[in-house]
Every structure is written in structure tokens, then in C-alpha cells.
Design goal:
37% helix, 2 domains, 17% strand, 14 helices, alpha/beta, 5-stranded mixed β-sheet, 380 residues, disordered C terminus
Length: 380
């Protein structure tokens, strides 16, 4: 039997899903069904990508497609999935939400049948899968809720694994923990070793925070996605097991989607708007309309260390909590005016010239002894 998992939220959730799988069953063969639904910095086209938006996919069943390392998004779309397919210790199959809940349910059922799987493990990093809809920082509950509703519609037994409560910056940890029960386990440093190369290049901040928490890092971390700080606590490395029925009780959107069974993504959006008052697809459309294409600075990233030192001093000087310890490399890279894909080069430069600031997979926000103190005092 091949273990079947679903990365419920798109973006970096395939990495978090693989981390959870390798911690539970390191020697089991596994497949991850995942959306191609990524931030506009990766994919400038709003909304998810379906099979028609890729070349090089391999058809597995009438409704399930394999993402191969040589698959590619059709421009102008972008996706990290093909590169992940070549580096993750699991296989990636595309989850296509454009046919709504019935279409997703059919894909899940076909995938389970092909794998010989008698259950599905649904993995969410952060916790918006159990959002109630009234959280002011909630941003992207629709893909998770659609996955939950489709699992119920598919009739395949499923358990939800919520990793890193609060790490996506959408529902604060203190609000999530009372909803999650006591059935959990904790990721440790050894669970992240295989993934070290991924965080050199992949922009997922929630995935990086999960790995950081598993490695024992603690304190507040500033992220690019929210612009705010996310706390790394003793609970941040936990993975909670939650019955699918319980998730349906906790999530009004998942319940509404299951009851309405919208047969298109547009119809699912309407359910989200009726239930929570917004749809992240519409928000992405608006951001894409208003945003301007990023133009990386012409300066070499190797010469950007003085600017990095200045920016870190500014971050420390702002009204962040006293426990501020880290920033993500993606946040630092984009703040310096570079494209997110150059974060791997920034890591290498920091590791060579500011090694005291490199707390894998994050960048320490503390004052570097190699930088004159006058720099910080002048900025403050």
C-alpha cells in the first residue's frame, strides 16, 4: 500500500506534509495530493493552477495527474511544484479545484483506489483549516476547507494533521490550541535533516518556521507574508491529530462547502463570501491588478551586506515585541529589493560573512558583533 496524504493549503504545504509523513512513517512509500496554489510572488496569475496550466504532467487516472520534475507551468504562471517533485521524498499529484467539491472528491477517490489506501491524511501547516471565520488575520481558508469537504464527499476515511499551530500567521496559536485537543506529537531536529536543502530556495515561510521550531528555535520571527511577527513557542513544533468530523464541526466554511457541494471554483468562492464575507481568490485578483512587477536591484547580492545590517537594525528599532529573535530569509531578501528566488544566495553570503546570524533556517535579528554599534544607535 502507498500512503496517501493531502497538502491542504497549497503553497509550501507539500513540504510540511512530507515532514509530517517522514516523522510518522519514515520508511513508507507516500503520495501527496497538492494544489498548485501559490503566492503571487511565485505565481503572478491569481488563483490556483489546473492541469491545463502545466506542460509535462503525466496522466495517472482520468482525473489525477502526476507532477514530474520536468513539468512546467505555462507562462506567465509560475509554480515551485516541479522542482519540489524532484527533491521531496514523496511523489506529488496535482489537486485541481476547478470542478469544485465533486471534482475534488472524485480525484481523492481515484487516488485512494490507485494507491490501495484505506485512509487519507490531510495536513495543514498553521491552522486555518479549523478557522471559524471571525479571525481578523485570516487570509486563505478556502483551499483547506475545500479539501476537508471533498474528503467527506469522497467517503474515504480521513484524519487531519495540523502542524505548527499559528505559524502561517492567520489564526494565532493562543486561539487555536483550545480547539485542538491533546492528541499530538512533536517534531524534533532529526525530522528536518532531509529537508535542509529545500529551505535554501523554497519561499514557504510557514514551512521554514515549522522546521525552525522542530530544531528548537524560540522567539518571535518577522515574516514577509504578514509583515508582523509570528511567535515560535513550545507548541510550534507540535502536530495535532484531529478527526475529520471534528474539523467539520470547527470550520463553518468546510461544513457549508460540504452541504452546498459547489461544482466549480467560482461557486465555491460564492460559498466562502456568504460564509466568511470574503474569498482569497478575489483578494488575489485585486492584488494582482494593483501590484507592479518587481524589478530586482542591479546591485549584486554579495554587496548587499551593509544594507542587510541597516535593515536588521531598523527591524530591531521598530515596535516589535521584546522577544523578537528572527526574520525569514524570504522577508530579508525581498526587503532588500531582490527577488525571492535569490534568498539562497543571501543565505550563502550570510553564512560566509555573518555566520553568527545564520540560525538555520532563519536569519537572527540580533545585533551582529561584526557590525559597528554606531550603526544601530544612529538608526534608533
Amino acid at each position: 500500500m502507498t500512503r496517501l496524504l493531502i497538502a491542504a493549503g497549497g503553497g509550501g504545504d507539500p513540504i510540511g506534509t512530507a515532514l509530517v509523513h517522514k516523522a510518522i512513517a519514515p520508511h513508507e512509500d507516500a503520495v501527496v495530493l497538492t494544489y498548485a496554489w501559490e503566492r503571487l510572488t511565485v505565481d503572478p496569475t491569481p488563483g490556483p493552477l489546473g492541469p491545463v496550466h502545466f506542460t509535462g504532467l503525466r496522466g495517472l487516472t482520468p482525473h489525477v495527474y502526476v507532477v514530474e520534475p520536468d513539468s512546467a507551468p505555462v507562462p506567465p504562471a509560475g509554480s515551485t511544484l516541479p522542482r519540489l517533485a524532484g527533491q521531496l521524498p514523496v511523489r506529488l499529484w496535482l489537486l485541481d479545484p476547478y470542478a469544485g467539491i465533486p471534482g475534488l472528491a472524485l480525484q481523492i477517490a481515484e487516488a485512494a483506489d490507485f494507491c490501495g489506501a484505506d485512509e487519507v491524511r490531510v495536513v495543514d501547516v498553521g491552522g486555518d483549516i479549523v478557522a471559524r471565520g471571525d479571525e481578523p488575520t485570516l487570509a486563505s481558508p478556502l483551499p483547506d476547507a475545500m479539501a476537508v469537504a471533498a474528503c467527506r464527499a469522497a467517503g474515504v476515511p480521513a484524519t487531519v494533521y495540523l502542524a505548527g499551530p499559528g505559524l502561517d500567521g492567520e489564526v494565532p496559536e493562543e486561539q487555536l490550541l483550545p480547539r485542538l485537543g491533546d492528541d499530538c506529537f512533536t517534531l524534533g531536529p532529526g525530522d528536518t535533516v532531509w529537508a535542509e536543502g529545500l529551505f535554501d530556495w523554497h519561499p514557504s515561510e510557514a514551512g521554514a518556521l515549522l522546521a525552525a521550531a522542530a530544531r528548537g528555535l524560540r522567539g518571535a520571527c518577522v515574516t514577509r507574508d504578514t509583515g508582523a511577527s509570528v511567535p515560535l513557542t513550545g507548541a510550534s513544533a507540535r502536530v495535532y491529530r484531529i478527526a475529520l468530523d471534528r474539523v467539520l464541526e470547527l470550520s463553518p466554511l468546510a461544513r457549508a462547502l460540504y452541504d452546498a457541494s459547489p461544482d466549480t471554483l467560482d461557486a465555491a468562492e460564492k460559498v466562502s463570501i456568504a460564509t466568511y464575507g470574503f474569498s482569497e481568490v478575489e483578494r488575489e485578483r485585486e492584488r494582482a491588478r494593483l501590484s507592479k512587477r518587481e524589478i530586482p536591484v542591479t546591485e549584486r547580492i554579495e554587496d548587499a551586506l551593509p544594507h542587510l545590517d541597516t535593515w536588521l537594525a531598523e527591524v530591531r528599532a521598530r515596535n516589535h515585541p521584546p522577544g523578537l529573535e528572527y526574520v525569514t530569509f524570504r522577508c530579508a531578501t525581498e526587503a532588500l529589493g531582490f527577488h525571492w528566488s535569490q534568498s539562497s544566495r543571501l543565505r550563502a553570503v550570510v553564512a560566509e560573512h555573518r555566520p553568527e546570524l545564520y540560525d538555520f533556517p532563519l536569519l537572527a535579528a540580533r545585533q551582529s558583533p561584526s557590525v559597528p554599534e554606531v550603526l544601530t544607535t544612529q538608526l534608533v
